[in-house]
Design brief:
The complex is a heterodimer of chains A (314) and B (244). Chain A is mainly α and 314 residues long. Chain A contains 14 helices and no strands. With 244 residues, chain B is of the alpha/beta class. A six-stranded mixed β-sheet of chain B has the order 6-7-8-3-9-10, sandwiched between helices. A four-stranded antiparallel β-sheet of chain B has the order 2-1-4-5, with helices on one face. The chains are: A mainly alpha (314), B alpha/beta (244). The interface between A and B is large, with 35 and 44 residues. Bound molecules: adenosine-5'-triphosphate and magnesium ion (MG).
Chain lengths: 314, 244
């Protein structure tokens, strides 16, 4: 029985990867550093979604809405107010989590697919507001040239900032994953009826999971602003939500780190395939179908199964 | 401790439970018997809040609990072990029981401490009690049916219930597993002083451990009384026991 939250035996690969990533900018061109930073941002978004989808079993179909709320909150405070930048950075996750609380409060009253449908509707409502409220959000033009603090405004410094924030967030997520709350959420995913029977208020825990997950989505939104210096309504569009959902499936939604793998693969494909064809979504669909047939547990799930195959038999 | 009065539940006009009465006193073992489809499972689900009664009253420790959600009923001190195995399939045996223990200790909302530090001893104790200690790290979905039924019971024990409801605890078990489980139920009542309400088709088991027996048929409760009384009741003989 593992008592402490962190165990070097299982964590050293992650530490090694992190160390390697610290040196990456020295080996890469500006463009690839930028793409890698985008992968980190997307990875954090996918990880936050997986807290409720993979570990919580919720049909969180419009997660991008909360990401967008985080990004817009950060950008708007930076552009429209004289407040220091850290206020913008700190306010964004809280704004996202509050939106998560509001939308989640309605959604947890419904089951499964109905939960997802309602969330798509409410999230799309948010998107419509951002899209139409020209005076505040700049409508479909979005907001460009958001002033980023000097310390993290170059491609290299923003890379390190994003990597550190990602590492910190993932560590905290891991803590939560292994906490009593994390275990409870996994139990709810496995069998909500039984959870109620052992005295767990399922809806309340689901709502709490949504608030935590959307908080991290808000942080991802901040990182997006840091790397791009702009925001636009597509951030809240349902297509992005679908993409992030597929990242979780692709990486392995029952694993902890899988969504990061899924994010890396998806962003890389989008970057390189996207330059050749407009039918990116079509390719995404094909990937999804292949996935369902060949890797039902996702890339990471597949790897873990292979690695642990020998050990698991006690 | 528990009083059920003229409880009624219908599914699309079909009366699964109709005017059932039942009482359980503290420290007692009460059995519910009746043919397939008599409404035993439905009765237990009504008591534990998984179904809402159409009519009737359920009083536990002097307070009405009818209409409460399952988690609220559980927190009042009633645990249900399901007839059809209903566990957390992807989690280990240990985690299955630990979830119930954490819930009982009101620790399910702890975000930033390791679950490896909470409810460990209690969980180990329960697993030791039911004889699943050596399988603690197995994923519960991979257990044999008999072990899963035992795990069912272990999860229910995780809440340290005052009243434990067992819906056919030995259903689908092999004869050896059945006798181990019967011993277990005996021990639970003797050592932990649990109050148990259960239903079972195995008449030998019923008559060997129940203090009182309630007989159900077509959703109605025919009689509740001591084993001899039930055995000698003509109506019961005609309806169910077939003259044994
Ligand atoms: N959710 C439901 N919807 C419709 N009918 C139901 C439902 N649950 C139970 N019934 C019906 O109610 C009757 C009583 O079922 P119940 O499961 O309570 O019987 P039981 O006494 O537990 O039987 P068994 O000994 O086979 O477990 C059965 O005829 C069953 O078909
Ligand atoms: Mg039954």
């Amino acid at each position: 029985m593992q008592r402490g939250p962190f165990n070097w035996k299982t964590l050293w690969p992650y530490a090694a990867v992190f160390a390697a990533l610290l040196f990456l900018p020295m080996a890469l061109s500006r463009f690839y550093i930028y793409i890698t930073a985008v992968i980190y941002v997307t990875a954090l978004l996918a990880m936050s979604l997986n807290m409720v989808v993979g570990h919580g079993g919720l049909y969180q179909f419009h997660h991008a809405a909360f990401y967008g709320v985080g990004a817009y909150t950060c950008a708007l405070i930076l552009v429209r107010t004289e407040l220091p930048a850290w206020v913008a950075f700190a306010a964004a996750p809280f704004a996202a989590a509050f939106t998560g609380l509001l939308i989640g409060w309605f959604c947890v009253r419904l089951n499964k697919l109905y939960f997802g449908m309602l969330q798509i509707s409410l999230g799309s409502l948010l998107w419509a507001i951002v899209f139409r409220w020209y005076d505040l959000t700049g409508g479909d033009d979005g907001i460009h040239g958001v002033p980023i603090p000097d310390a993290i405004s170059t491609i290299n410094t923003s890379y390190y900032f994003i990597l550190l924030v990602l590492a910190a967030c993932v560590s905290v997520m891991y803590l939560i994953y292994r906490s009593p709350f994390g275990k409870t959420l996994q139990a709810i995913r496995d069998n909500p009826e039984r959870c109620e029977a052992v005295g767990i208020n399922v809806r309340r825990h689901q709502l709490m999971g949504i608030v935590v997950a959307t908080f991290f989505a808000g942080i991802a939104g901040v990182l997006f602003v840091v790397v791009e210096g702009s925001v636009f309504p597509d951030l809240l569009f349902w297509v992005l939500s679908l993409e992030v959902f597929i990242m979780c499936l692709l990486g392995g939604w029952f694993t902890f780190a899988g969504p990061m793998v899924g994010a890396a693969v998806t962003v890389a494909l989008r970057t390189f395939v996207g330059t050749y064809t407009e039918y990116w979504t079509l390719i995404l669909g094909v990937i999804l179908i292949l996935l369902i047939f060949f890797l039902p547990e996702g890339v990471m799930g597949f790897i873990i199964e292979k690695v642990q195959g020998g050990e698991a038999e006690e | 401790m528990l009083q059920v009065e003229s409880l009624t539940k219908s599914f699309d006009g079909f009366l699964a439970v109709s005017g059932a009465n039942l009482s359980v006193e503290r420290g007692e073992i009460v059995a519910v018997i009746g043919p397939n489809g008599a409404g035993k499972t439905t009765l237990f689900k009504l008591i534990t809040g998984h179904l809402r009664p159409d009519e009737g009253r359920i009083i536990f420790e002097g307070q009405s609990i009818s209409g409460l959600r399952p988690y609220e009923v559980c927190r009042r001190g009633i645990s249900l072990s399901f007839q059809v195995v209903n566990v957390f399939n992807r989690m280990t045996v240990f985690e299955n029981v630990q979830v119930a223990v954490l819930s009982h200790q009101k620790k399910t909302r702890k975000l930033f401490s390791s679950s490896g530090r909470h409810g460990i001893e209690e969980t180990e104790e329960i697993l030791g009690n039911v004889g699943l200690a050596d399988k603690a790290r197995r994923v519960s979905g991979s257990l044999s049916h008999g072990d899963q039924k035992v795990l069912e019971m272990a999860i229910a024990l995780g809440n340290r219930p005052d009243l434990l409801i067992l819906d056919e605890p030995t259903a689908g078990m092999s004869p050896e597993e059945t006798s181990v489980t019967i011993d277990l139920i005996h021990r639970l009542t003797r050592e932990l002083g649990l109050t148990i309400l259960f239903c079972e088709h195995d008449m030998e088991l019923v008559f060997s451990i129940a203090h009182r027996i309630m007989v159900m048929q077509y959703g109605r409760s025919l009689i509740q009384g001591a084993p001899q009384e039930v055995r000698s009741n003509e109506e019961v003989q005609a309806a169910y026991l077939g003259g044994t």
